[in-house]
C-alpha cells in the first residue's frame, strides 16, 4: 500500500482530532461517571479504562474500513479503466480537502454526511447504554465499540478514503492509521489534561489543522506520485494497444 496514503490518514486523525473535543468530551465524561471517585482522580487507575475504550473505538473504525474497502473493490471492478486507482485517488484527495475545510470551519459540507449518519446512529446508540455505568474494562471496550459509530464528518471523510482504496485490506489499514492518529488527543482528553484540550479547542488551532489537511489533499491531487500513476496508466493502455496489434 502507498505509505503516503497511510500517512495522510494518520495525519488526518492526528490533526482532525481537534474537532473531537466538542463532540467526544461528553462521552469521556460518561465513561468515567460510574467509576469510583478514587479511580476518576487517579491517572494510573483511570488510564486503563480510557485506553480500552479507545481500543474499542478504533476497532469499530477498522470494521468500517474493511466494509468500505469491500464496497470500493466492487465499484472499481465496474470502472472501464486499465488503472482505476487514478479516479479513486481523485476522490480521496477531494474528500481530504473537504475535511480540511470542515475542520477549519470554512465549509461545512460534511455536516450533511453527519445528518445522514444520525438515522443509523439512532438504531445503534441504545446498545451503548447496556455498557453503562462503566465499572469494568469489558464495559469500557463495549462502549468504545458502539461509540465508534457516532456520526462524525471526520470519520466519514476517511471512510470515503477507504472506499476509494478499492481494497478490503487497504480500507482496514487506512482506518487503523486514522484511529492511531486520533489516540494522542483522546487519551489526553480522557486523562484530564485540561490545558491541552483548551488549547486544541481554539479556533486558530483548528484552522491550522484544517489548512495542513488541505495541503495534504492538494499534494495527493497534484503531487509527483499522482503523475507517476498517470504514467503507469498510460503505459498500461499503450502496452495493451500494442499487444492487440
Mean of residue pLDDT values: 81
Order of helices and strands: HHHHHHHHHHHH
Number of helices: 12
Largest sheet: none
Broad shape: globular
N- and C-termini, Cα separation: 33 Å
Strand fraction? under 5%
Radius of gyration: 20 Å
Binned, the helix content reads over 70%
Give the class from helix and strand content and strand pairing. Answer: mainly alpha
Q: Please provide the count of β strands.
A: 0
Q: Spans of 5+ residues with little confidence (pLDDT < 50)? A: 232-242
Explain this structure.
This protein has 245 residues and is mainly alpha-helical. The chain has a domain of 146 residues. Helix content is 82%, strand content 0%. Helix 4 packs parallel to helix 7, helix 5 packs antiparallel against helix 8 and helix 6 packs across helix 8. The protein starts with a helix and ends with a helix.
Short description:
The chain has a domain at 3-17 and 46-82 and 108-201. With 245 residues, it is mainly α.
SSE layout and pairing:
Layout lengths: L2 H14 L3 H14 L3 H4 L2 H34 L8 H20 L5 H20 L7 H11 L5 H13 L2 H23 L3 H7 L2 H20 L1 H21 L1
Helix pairs in contact: 1-9, 1-11, 2-9, 4-7, 4-8, 4-9, 5-8, 5-11, 6-7, 6-8, 8-9, 11-12
Features:
mainly alpha, globular
